[in-house]
Structure formats: structure tokens, C-alpha cells
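Subject: design request, 290 residues
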């Protein structure tokens, strides 16, 4: 492992190497503790969450390490705040274990911070921040995208049953493993127990997936909010995302009406639950809902 002293300084950020892989930080940081997990083959350093993430290989085993405590390039808070948040997130992953959620192995204090250790997933991400991965993801046929949407719905119904509300879910949270033909969801760190109130005005997340109440301080954030998020996900998978015109929609008129109802600005006009959204969707696709 190279010395953690940065090799150059550019655009107000330090760039240093971890196992010959560059990472961008606000200041130098000693990542020598990473060697206990294996050799780094991938770094994700452009997050605004306060975490820096590593893909690590130890023989045949590969892990995904999410670490809080370093001065990451885009985080506005203090490292201690990021550590507290990641510790809380570990509890969320444990509570919401599911076949379509990335698998948490454990969380532990290490390197002067805190690490959440996950099983590595060979998934292509739908998020726009990863253009090459997104391009591969968006080549999926509609039949497979329907399976992806069902998996996302099923996970969020599971989250509701566990008493949670989804916060900051967007296309960057959606992975598809082509080799296993499996959908995986990641980055659920901010999912919270209900009841939940918007105390900040504009909440975390991508505006393409956010309901009106996620911009309004004092609004309740609940299952009907998540109905909107799932409707927005349908338009991201099968339509024009924010352009929700019929011309951009790839599927039937019936499914278009179900998705359009879900993204109504009027909460009372949306489906009253995720389970009802799933039932309406399945009726139009000819599936049998649980």
C-alpha cells in the first residue's frame, strides 16, 4: 500500500492512492487499516454522505466497505456526524434484510472511524452518476425492467411492514446483476421509522423521485409519499422520467394510468398504499398480487 500522503492537489482537493487506486479527499487520511480486508480494486469517493467506499479483494472473496471518518470531498458536515449516521444505518440494514437488499455482513469501529462491511455485488447501477453503468442498465428489455420494478415494489412493501418509510430512494439505489439476473437495492441509509416529519424543507434525494411533501417543512413523510417514489421509479424505467407524457411511455395505457396516479401532486389522489399500487399494477400486467 502506498504512503497515504497525497500525490497531488487539484481543485481544492487532495488526491492520494490506496493500493494504486486514486481517491479524492479534502485532506490526507491514513487508510492503511483497509489492508485487513484485502486489496482495494475500486474506490467510490464522490459521495455527499460523508462516506467513502471501497471494493476490496482477498483471494476469491470480494467485499464492499463503506467507511465514515475520513474528510471526504463533498461532505459538508463533520466526520463524527458521518460516523454517527453510518452506525445508525447499520441498524436499518439489519432490520430490513431482504433478498433484494445488498447483504450487510457487519459494522465495526476501525481506522479512527466506522466501517460497514457488505457482500460485494456485481451490479450495474441505474444512477445517472455512473453513465457507463447506466447505459448498460438501460439496455434491459421491458420484460426484465418489469421484474426490476416488481423487486423494488416488493422490497418497499417489506420496509413498510417493518415500520419504515423510504427516504432518499432514487435510481442510484438500483442495481441489476446480469450474471444472476437479480435486482438489488443499496444506499438505504436514511430510511427511517414511522412516523416521520419533514423538518428541513427540501429533503435529501433526487428531485426526479421526490414528492411535493419532501420539499415542504412540517409535512408528514409516509407510505403515500413512497407511493409517489415508486410511481416516479416506474416513469424512470418505462417513461421519460420527469417528462410524464403518454408519448414517452413504453408500456400499456392501463399501466400508464396506474403510474400517473401514483405521482399525483395531490396525496389524496394517489394509491393509499404500496400494496394497492402493486395490486393495480399487477391487474394491468395480468399478474397475481400477493
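Subject: RE: design request

Done. Sequence follows.
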Amino acid at each position: 500500500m502506498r504512503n497515504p500522503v497525497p500525490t497531488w492537489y487539484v481543485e481544492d482537493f487532495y488526491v492520494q492512492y490506496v493500493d494504486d487506486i486514486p481517491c479524492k479527499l479534502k485532506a490526507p487520511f491514513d487508510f492503511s487499516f483497509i489492508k485487513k480486508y484485502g486489496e482495494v480494486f475500486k474506490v467510490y469517493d464522490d459521495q455527499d454522505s460523508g462516506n467513502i467506499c471501497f471494493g476490496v479483494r482477498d483471494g476469491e472473496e470480494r467485499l464492499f466497505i463503506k467507511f465514515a471518518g475520513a474528510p471526504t470531498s463533498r461532505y459538508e458536515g463533520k466526520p463524527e456526524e458521518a460516523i454517527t449516521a453510518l452506525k445508525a444505518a447499520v441498524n436499518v440494514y439489519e432490520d430490513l434484510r431482504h433478498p433484494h437488499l445488498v447483504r450487510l455482513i457487519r459494522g465495526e469501529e476501525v481506522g479512527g472511524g466506522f466501517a460497514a462491511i457488505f457482500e460485494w455485488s456485481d451490479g450495474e447501477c441505474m444512477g445517472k452518476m455512473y453513465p457507463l453503468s447506466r447505459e448498460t442498465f438501460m439496455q434491459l428489455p421491458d420484460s426484465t425492467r418489469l421484474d426490476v420494478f416488481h423487486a423494488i415494489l416488493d422490497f418497499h412493501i417489506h420496509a413498510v411492514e417493518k415500520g419504515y418509510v423510504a427516504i432518499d430512494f432514487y435510481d442510484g439505489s438500483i442495481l441489476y446483476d446480469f450474471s444472476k439476473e437479480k435486482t438489488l437495492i443499496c444506499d438505504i441509509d436514511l430510511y427511517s421509522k414511522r412516523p416521520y416529519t419533514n423538518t428541513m424543507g427540501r429533503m435529501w434525494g433526487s428531485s426526479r423521485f421526490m414528492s411535493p411533501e419532501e420539499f415542504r417543512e412540517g409535512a408528514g413523510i409516509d407510505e403515500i409519499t413512497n407511493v409517489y417514489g415508486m410511481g416516479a421509479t416506474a416513469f424512470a424505467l418505462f417513461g421519460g422520467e420527469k417528462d410524464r407524457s403518454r408519448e414517452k411511455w413504453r408500456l400499456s395505457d392501463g399501466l400508464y394510468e396506474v403510474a400517473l396516479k401514483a405521482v399525483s401532486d395531490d396525496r389524496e389522489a394517489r394509491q393509499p398504499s404500496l400494496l394497492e399500487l402493486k395490486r393495480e399494477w399487477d391487474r394491468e400486467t395480468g399478474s397475481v398480487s400477493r
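Residues 1-9 have pLDDT under 50 and may be disordered.
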